[in-house]
TrEMBL record:
It comes from Paenibacillus taichungensis. Residues 1-158 form the AraC effector-binding domain. SUPFAM superfamilies: Probable bacterial effector-binding domain. It comes from the Bacteria. Signal peptide: none annotated. Pfam families: GyrI-like. InterPro entries: AraC_E-bd, GyrI-like, Reg_factor_effector_dom_sf, YobU-like_regulator. This is AraC family transcriptional regulator.
Amino acid sequence: MEAKVVTLPAFQVVGYKIEATVEAFEAGLGKIHHEQLHKRKEEIQLRKNDNVILMQIYPMDADFNPKEDVFTHLIGYEVLADSAAPPDMILHAVKESQYVTCTHKGFESELDATYDYLYGQWISETGYELKDYDFEIWDERYQPDHPNNEIDLFVALQ
């Protein structure tokens, strides 16, 4: 698995905000909101592209466990700076930041191994400090139940 550090400019996402554990999100909340987002795509003006962004924002708490504790999930589209959110959606701004990034290849159900590598081995080997969020980009390669699935992961760094 090849990870590299990149700097991305500030960007904005319009979509749904879901407060849930990973288990609840994966048990259906994520799929429901992904389907709703797709149905309402045309309401989101000034979309940069059709790639879906799944962002996870974590509390900066030493006892936090993403597999058991509730945290914020945002699922939406990247939009141009002057965008507004349709009713029942939010606009979330992300500042310019450095990220460690890599591409997960394989079933989405195996994504934990890629996150474990980035948050465990890669962070401990490089000495970088983490910020409170990460995100995935689901583009034309996103096929969650197929072995050829690819998801780009970005973990924010201090």
